[in-house]
UniProtKB/TrEMBL annotation, chains A, B:
GO biological process, one term: response to amino acid
Residue ranges of every copy of the HTH asnC-type domain listed in the record: 3-64
One example GO MF annotation: sequence-specific DNA binding
Lineage: Bacteria, Bacillati, Actinomycetota, Actinomycetes, Kitasatosporales
UniProt protein name: Lrp/AsnC family transcriptional regulator
Source species of the chain: Streptomyces klenkii
Transcription among keywords: yes
Gene Ontology CC terms: cytosol
DNA sequence: GTTGAAAATCTTCCGCC
DNA sequence: GGCGGAAGATTTTCAAC
């Protein structure tokens, strides 16, 4: 699938503020409100836009501690097994299999350091996990867009 | 700041679909539409909700290659300098200063491997960057919520 | 927090290019 | 195929309670 420049500008406008009116976005990109809606509907149908969500301040919601956990798996662990194992943790915000020494990189939000430690220990104890290596986030500098499915 | 259970349920509903109407959310949590709006307005004013955004499928938008770059900075580089340097790259989706050997962890989306390599080289050439270490994402397993500021 | 009304927006339809 | 204008339906918004 290929998007033209108009679609990209619409997605960009929605990424900055998904509650802007179609007429408002249309004024920016040079289209009428119905034309913008039609394109957004098409982008949703095609799967380019998977939904609309709210941007939250984790700290304000009580998730003050953020970190990344590199997971080193046992031999013959499938990505599906990692997904199944990690999706049970509400603290896991994102996870991907990666190249390099580690097998997966997991982003975790916890309420505080003790909570983070507890999550880390539980993940490290998963049967498919051989060992872990983790770093804590000091300050979030930049967060731009949201991708993927809600859960 | 502390949110009560009603606020959390409203944020949760918006996280799943930020375009649901206030009346619809109100029916779920047991409030009228204006009551829900007032709480959302308050959450925005307090900073718990920092905005509304669209959830996109990076691959559908042509961002097929994802990776993480660890940045090792020169001495006396402030987080603000890193932020200024990285915010110019549209390919940078998120960035945080972290504990451990590296100084910052940067998430990058690129159209393909050549594009990723070009971004990596440009970032590695930034004056505040001493060296970098990067991993490529093989498969995104899980992506849950969006946090932080738009840019 | 609720109700009710006004204003804005969304959504669909239709004619046009 | 896509676009703009206009209609009704829905939602947002702001009163008063």
């Amino acid at each position: 699938m290929r998007l033209n420049e108009l679609d990209e500008r619409i997605v960009h406008a929605l990424a900055e503020d998904a509650r802007r009116s179609y007429a408002d976005i249309g004024a920016e990109v040079g289209l009428s409100a119905p034309a913008v809606k039609r394109r957004v509907d098409r982008l949703r149908a095609e799967g380019a836009i998977t939904g609309f969500t709210v941007r939250v301040d984790p700290a304000a919601l009580g998730w003050e501690t953020e970190g990344f956990i590199e997971i080193y798996c046992r031999r013959n662990t499938s990505p599906e097994a990692i997904h199944r194992g990690l999706s049970r943790y509400p603290e896991v915000a994102s996870a991907s299999t990666v190249t390099g020494e580690a097998d997966a990189l997991v982003q975790v939000f916890a309420s505080d350091m003790r909570h983070f430690e507890r999550v880390l220990e539980r993940i490290a104890g998963e049967p498919f996990v051989e060992r872990t290596k983790s770093v804590l986030v000091l300050s979030p500098l930049l967060r731009r867009f949201s991708s993927g499915a809600p859960s």
